[in-house]
Amino acid sequence: MVVPVPTDLDAYWMPFTANRQFKKAPRLLVGADRLYYTTHDGRQVMDTISGLWCVNAGHNRPRIVEAIRRQVGEMDYAPPFQMAHPQVFELATRLAGLFPDGLEHVFFTNSGSESVETALKIALAAHRARGEPGRFRLIGRERGYHGVNFGGLSVGGIGANRKAFGPLLPGVDHLRHTHAPERNAFSRGLPEHGAEFADDLERLIALHDPSTIAAVIVEPVAGSTGVLLPPRGYLERLRALCTRHGIFLIFDEVITGFGRLGAPFATHAFGVTPDLVTVAKGLTNGVVPMGAVIASRGIHDAFMNGPGEGIEFFHGYTYSGNPIATAAALATLDTYAEEGLLTRGPELAGFWEDSLHALRGLPHVIDIRNYGLVGAIELDPIPGQPTQRATQAFLKAYEAGFLIRTTGDTIALAPPLIAEREDLARLVEGLATILRTLD
Ligand SMILES: Cc1ncc(COP(=O)(O)O)c(C=O)c1O
C-alpha cells in the first residue's frame, strides 16, 4: 500500500537530519512488525539498527502493545513528586535486580540525555552530601556521546555536536579516545591493544588533583561515534583508578544495555561494575520514552541523611516513572525474559562475527568491529568529502531494503535481538552487494 507524502513538509524541523536534502526526497516509515519496517512507498525494509538502538525485541510485540493499551485505559498519568503508583516500584525492583549487587536504586527519567544529566547531578550532589563539595570536575572522553543536553554535551567528545554552543559546563575535561585502528583494525571482539589509554586519567588526576574530580563517564562501547570497543583491560584499569582516587565511575549504557552485547548490560559483559549506570532506549523497547539511572547503595544512602521529612534530592521530571512508560517497560522486561533476549548474544555472536568479517577485502572497507549483536564497518572516506561514502551506502541500502545507520564513514549495525541467522546472513549479503557499488 502506498501512503501519500504530506503536502507540507516545511513546519517540521527534523532532528539530526539534513532537512533540505530529506524534504526533496522524503523517506517515510508507516508500519513496523518484528524485523521489518513498511515504507510509504509500500516496501519492506529490514531494521538493522533496532530503530535507533532501542527496539531490541523487534517491533509490534504483543505484550508491550497490550500493556500500554491496558494502562492508558486504567490510569493515564500520575504525578511523581510526593506521589507514586504501584507499578513503578515493581519496575525499579526488577530493573535493579538485573544489575550486580550494590547497584540497587533507580531514578527514572525520559531519555538517555536526561539519564546522563541526572547521573552527573547525582555524582556531584553525592560527593557534597558525603562532605566533599570540592569534587566538582566531570571527566568525559573524546568521541563520547552522552546526549544533547548541556551536561551530556560538555562531557561528550563529538566536535560537531559541541561547537555551536559556546563554553558549555566549566570544570570538564576529557580522556583520550580509545580508537587505534593502526594496531587494532579487524579485531574480532575486544581489541588487544590499548588498555594503557586508561592511564590518561592519571594525567588528568595529576593536572587537576583527584580531590576535585567527581566522576568519570564513559560509554563501555562508544556507539554513536562508530562502535568503538574498549581495548582488553581498559575498563578494569579505569575502574581501579577511579576507586583508588574516590572518583565515581559512570557507565552510559544507553546503547549497550538490554542485551546488545550478548549479556544484559556491559557491566556483565566486561565484568566491571560502575557506581552509576544510565539506561534508556531498550528499557521500553523504544516504544514509549523512558530512561533511568541505577545508583549504588553507597551513593543513594549518602542522600538519606538529615530529617526524614525533607526532600533529599532536588531533581525530577514531570514524566519520571510515567504509568504508560512503566507499563511498557514491565512488558518489555517480560518479553526479554520469556524469549531469553538479554543473553541471546552468545548464540548469534560467533555467526555474526564470521559473517561480518567476511566483508573484509571489499572495496573501501578499512576496519570491521563486532561484539555481541553490534557491528561496524568503517569505510575509507572519499578524499575531501568525509561522511559522503557512508551516506551513499545508507541511501543505496535503503533502496535495497535495509535501514542501516551511518556515523562519520562508519556503518553501524545493531539488529533486533530476535534476528535469526538467516536474517543476519541476508543483511550481510545485501551489504556486500552495496559495498561493491560504492564510488
Ligand atoms: C550512549 C548514549 N547516551 C545518551 C544518549 C542520548 O539518548 P536520547 O537520545 O534518548 O536522549 C544516546 C543516544 O543515542 C547514547 O547513545
Structural class: alpha/beta
What separation lies between the terminal Cα atoms? 33 Å
CATH architecture heading of the largest domain: 3-Layer(aba) Sandwich
The largest β sheet comes out as: 7 strands, mixed
Number of strands: 15
Task: Order the strands across the largest sheet as they lie in space.
Answer: 4-10-9-8-7-5-6
Tell me the helix content.
25-40%
Strand content: 15-25%
CATH topology of the largest domain: Aspartate Aminotransferase, domain 2
Q: Count helical runs.
A: 16
Just give the CATH class of the largest domain.
Alpha Beta
Inertia-based shape: globular
CATH superfamily descriptor of the largest domain: Type I PLP-dependent aspartate aminotransferase-like (Major domain)
Determine the mean pLDDT: 98
Catalogue the unreliable spans: none
**What integer value in Å does the Rg equal?**
22 Å
Count of all domains: 2
Bound ligands, named by name, code or SMILES: pyridoxal-5'-phosphate
